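Subject: complex prediction, re-run

Hi both,

The earlier run crashed halfway through, so I resubmitted it with identical inputs.
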Amino acid sequence: STIVLVFEAPEDFEFSVHAGQKVRVGQRLGDI
Amino acid sequence: IVNAWTETPTKWYPLPLAVGAILLVAIQYRKKVKRARQEVELNEDGLEVIKLRGPWHVHVIGALPLRNMSRLWGYVNSLELPVWIRPYGFRLYAFAFGCNLDEVEHADLREYPSLGAFFYRRLKPGARPVDHAILVSPADGRMLHFGRITESRVEQVKGITYSLDALLGIERPGSPAPLPVAVAHNRDMEVVDDHEFAIVNGIEYSLDQLIGGTSSSTPSSPGTRTPSSDEGSTLVNRSTSGSSTATPSEASDADDVPKKFGAQTDASVGPENMEETLVHDASVALQMGVKPALEIDVKAALDRRRSVTSGKHVRPGNALFFSVIYLAPGDYHRYHSPTAWVVEKRRHFVGELFSVSPYMAKRLENLFVLNERVALLGRWKHGFFGMVPVGATNVGSIVVNFDTELRTNIRGRPPPPGTYTEAVYSGASPILRGQPLAPAEEMGGFRLG
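This time it finished cleanly. Structure:
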């Protein structure tokens, strides 16, 4: 199963993860 | 060889005209086929034609009855296991797929009657601390891909893209303009100017209590975040009370809808405890930066609403982003809200149930728009927000806690790709005209079969 997020955000939004990284519920994905 | 190369005389003669013409036709044909593979194929309405594309083994997999296999898999795994075998069986499963049994809700594995129940397990409260960032992970899994969306194309893997319209669905032609997003003035709730207190149904709540912070002496309510001072919020498992009822919104309108766009239904969620709901909604509203009790310009609200429900138009200074999280078989399979947002509608796309493993994602084009999925569309502080749980062969059942009418992976021939049924949650919240969700609030999950 997969979850796809599509969202609008300010252009300076930055992801704080890298491709292939294991993530957990509540973990920071990105911030402004 | 040397002699042949040096001593053989070269004799030039003209090719027959027909051979040259055939050669040119063959070259043009090859170019056309190559271009057709790379370019998006459009139908007569200008919409992308979604079909199976990939190497030959992908087509072999596509010929299998994946949906029937998925339902059979779910049935087998729903069978109750003998009590004595459960701990051994689940430990073996946990060992094989890397589950951490220390964090499951029931330490006594005999309490899970079947593998399906164990697969859909809850975690212990506090097992997942919630970060204070504006966007947190909605699930346990692996981040497959993320980035910015350009020209309405989402990148599945490097070099392979799919259409945003195909993923989220397009608006029905001729659909009526949506209602204003904001409640002009709600007497049930007021927010004072300094934003330190909110009054809900005559009861005063501190903002600390509503949006999280230090301790408060005002009445407590379930469903709000209660972070400790140094470790952030804890996982919120909010069981939604009430039931969802899906009724045809407008019979005449639904009759006019072309079949490819599906019928529209209206699912409204009736809360049992209005006060609890208001506090919860107010919490989400405040985290989104909305002032529920203040007058909001209706035109601006309409413009914003139109722009955010499609995901096509973004505010100046904003951009569209995406991220894809893959849940492996051993992962915790419930998903949570990634931010404070309001779900306005859901679109259920019945489709195939291919595996969504990274192996398939690299080979099968349009994987995420071919598979069965539920697009939850709404808005957050910065505009449009959409979340799409995508099913797979082993997990065809997608659960949305606040939408009990939703049924996925049911028997029958799937309609053409791109078809969906829609439900709106406008009745779920008296303040926000949608289903409000707090960060890390449990939203639903994936079940076997």
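The two ends of chain A are 28 Å apart (CA to CA).

- K.
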